[in-house]
Amino acid sequence: MPVGYLWTVVFIATGTLFALAPVRRPRLLADLSFRLGLVIGELPFVALAWLLLWTAVAIAQGDIDTLAGRAVVALAAVTAAWLAVVVRRGLRGRAAVDRALAEGLGTGWREAIAQDRAAGLRHRRPLARILLRPFAGRPYDVVRVANLQYGAGGRRQRLDVYHHRSRPAGAPVLIHLHGGSYRGGRKNSQSLPLLHRLASRGWVCVSANYRLLPEVRHPEHLIDAKRVIAWVREHGDAYGADPAALLMAGSSAGGHLAALAALTPGDPALQPGFEAADTSVTAVIGLNGYYGPYYGQGPESSPSAHITADAPPFLLVHGDRDTVVPVDIARYFAADLRGGSVATVVYAELPGAQHAFDLFHSLRFEAVVDGVEAFAGWVLSSRRVSEPPHPTAR
Q1: What is the pTM of this model?
Q2: What residues act catalytically?
Q3: What is the CATH number that goes with domain 108-393?
């Protein structure tokens, strides 16, 4: 019995099943399903390569000459077929994003984007990156300025700035807030493919920590988010930023926080000590976000309670297999925004996507990154906000 080969195949087969049909309970099994299914679901080519490698080793060592060995090879072949289904679902992400953009921005949205921005939109998948380098290494042309203090709260009130090495002036800004259920998570860990892509395109990107439970509760997290916005408006020009074009993004709990911050601009009760600071944002991007009430608090802690007619444009992206934040929560929030705001709302639902799909350079998230850049280009063009030329054009 090829025991090592058997365990490898069983491990990959289990993760592939979790990617295709994630388990929601009991809790321990659901947690394993989420973690393993997420990795296989976003990195099916890595799983397939590992499966083929171990199959080749087993064949070379003569481990499949027995009935048991041939049974394991048969399971490996079935797993490879399942992985093909995972890949197919990942490929469908681009169509889902394109469809959402057409529905939210109008079928002529590409023509509405300023020519310099439209010319930079990517039209082909970066297959070499997805296949060979799916992990989020920082590109050479992007500089990370780490651990800048924006408050007196120690390491939980620090942020990182990403900018192009040429440091173009007048760059639009993206602030990203990490997820972690308000209990964990850190900057420089989530949505890095998005931050690196925009910074490489001449943006200034900011990834920020904020204080967590049990040290603080709502609205202290929200106050931290607003401090980050105020910091960017005060210090961003030192890194080439134009705060007139400031987009807010967040993953999971960070999506909740970004939405709340965007929907409560200038509220003095949420800006103690910096009441006069401009904390408005140009648009919001929510990735697998939670948009319900905060722990044990009423509906006023939900972003939906603060929607007004003058809310900024929103792009919401969620996976239809999300077992951490059910997709219905994102659907309801998108409906609330469309019912209470006159601004554009784009809602994209990704086939087969689990929570935290924004960790890797996957087929799915690369399509989302392209969609974010298109949405941002449309927003900035519609507001006639200046943007520097692409750094390589210099």
Answers
A1: 0.94
A2: 252, 322, 355
A3: 3.40.50.1820
